[in-house]
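Hi everyone, sorry if this is the wrong subforum. Our group has a chain we'd like a structural model of before ordering constructs, and none of us has done structure prediction before. Sequence below.
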Amino acid sequence: MASIDIDGLLRSSVDEFFDSLQKADFTSSINSWQTLHDDVVSSRGALDAETSTLGLGFTQCIEKLCDTFINLEVKTNDLTTRLRQDFAALPLEEERIHTPSRSPSPSRATRSPSPSSSHL
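Answer:
Right subforum, don't worry. Here is the predicted structure as tokens:
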């Protein structure tokens, strides 16, 4: 049986995983994982203890990465929703500019004297 380069296959699968994240399309990543699985199983017939341990550890690592990205997306969506709500609650700039302000009434000292009071 031909030996396989498990390290190379794992690296390739991780690269494919991160490429898939960027593209938001996991088709190639899933295919890469399936190829890895098929190659390992077909060349060895069954996984030995060392390869099995490596595979489990690697799988757990990828699982944690997926969970982290999902949690980040959820938190980002929550923050986006809150920011939109906060923004919607702010008064519009136009409303503040066009809202008439109350001007103080002029004092008597600034008024012109009435014609009748100047004849006294």
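For your construct planning: Residues 6-88 form one domain. The chain has a mean pLDDT of 75.
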